[in-house]
Amino acid sequence: MPPRIERKQLKDITLSVGEMLKFEGNVIGEPPADVTWKKEDRIIETTRDKSLMITNVPYNTKLIIKSCKRSDQGEYTVLAENSVGKDKVIVNLTVLDKPGAPEGPLKASDVHSDGCTLKWKRPKDDGGSPIDYYQVEKLDPDTGLWIPCGRSQDTTLPVKGLKSKKKYKFRVKAVNPEGESEPLNGEEEIEAKEPFEEPGAPRNLELVDYDADSVDLKWEPPKDTGGAEVTGYVVEKKDEFGRWTKAHEVPGTQTKCQVPNLVTGEKYKFRVKAVTAGGISEPSNDVGPVTIKARNLPPRIDRSNLHDIRCKAGDMFNFDVNISGEPPPEKQWLSNGKEMTASDRIKVVFNDYNTKIFVRSAKRSDTGKLVITAENANGSDRAEVTMQFQLNMPRTRTCTRTAAA
């Protein structure tokens, strides 16, 4: 009788790594058949370590693998043959495992101050099951621990949430229903920073002009922009008692500006910083302090201290007069049309916004009009007082003021 192999327990099978495989079949036929097992057309026999055992007895054969490995996967053939004929059965063993490690290299691109993009290759062995996803981890520079930073369905991942100027290592694992693979470790340490360096400071900041609520500034671009285009400039101000605060912004193509909204009468310093994709520069040299005031005003004489006076020979008189105007006006005192200059008897003081005149001993020739003039490029002003000289007045040490001019 030719051999006939029972096929009841000889069917294709899928196992996980570590599970036991058992193929067994009764073999009928006379005389009893000789049975041979093959894997992928290669004859296999019991191994020395008994991890694979083949047992053939008359009318029965079995193949046992105690703990399946991925390498055990394949096509198995059992062949029974006697003098009358032969029979064979082919069965397929699928062994599922965790995937192999993703293929390298693990590369980082588009590195910036809070992230980067990672890329790798699929594992050579997916473990017999489709890859569900890839788990990416980063080595936290503060704790020294590997922590998840994202999952991806394909072989690339944009990573976010890095800390600027910190250095990171990355690794990636493939995950299928059997578990996760060994990691693919990145060879390079990545520093989270912009691809450009921080720019140098703007140079040679100058105060060009000022007015009642603004100043005009100019400067030169930084010598070193860190490889990136200057996209803007930030102008900062600081008053006498405060801190540096932002006062104005201008585009990177502009190296001069007018800083608005300043407080008249306040003193300020100014400085400028450059802005690029690489960050914000150190500040330029500062300029100031400058007092915020009108740049062009016609003179205005404060008449509150100007009163007509009556004097006696030897009396003393004086006037203290404030004068506004920008630029500071030129000032002059006149007595009856003649300029009054300093002498033993007369003292004249001129400051930017004030003038004083002291007459130690009045004379009859002082009688008449005492005039003060103020003039600048924006106009002029003039005020006068009347000097009366009386011989019959009681003797006093100072003149008597009588009325406003």
Q: Tally the helices.
A: 0
Query: What is the 3D shape?
Result: rod-shaped
In whole angstroms, how far apart are the ends?
151 Å
Name the CATH class of the largest domain: Mainly Beta
Physical arrangement of strands within the biggest beta sheet? 32-31-35-36-29-37
Number of strands: 37
Task: Write the CATH fold name of the largest domain.
Answer: Immunoglobulin-like
Which regions are unreliable across 5 or more consecutive residues at pLDDT < 50?
none
The chain-level mean pLDDT equals 92
CATH architecture of the largest domain: Sandwich
Concise overview:
The protein is built from no helices and 37 strands. The chain is mostly beta strands and 405 residues long. The strands form nine sheets. The protein has a six-stranded mixed sheet with strand order 32-31-35-36-29-37, with no helix packed on it. The chain has a five-stranded mixed sheet with strand order 2-9-8-4-5, with no helix packed on it.
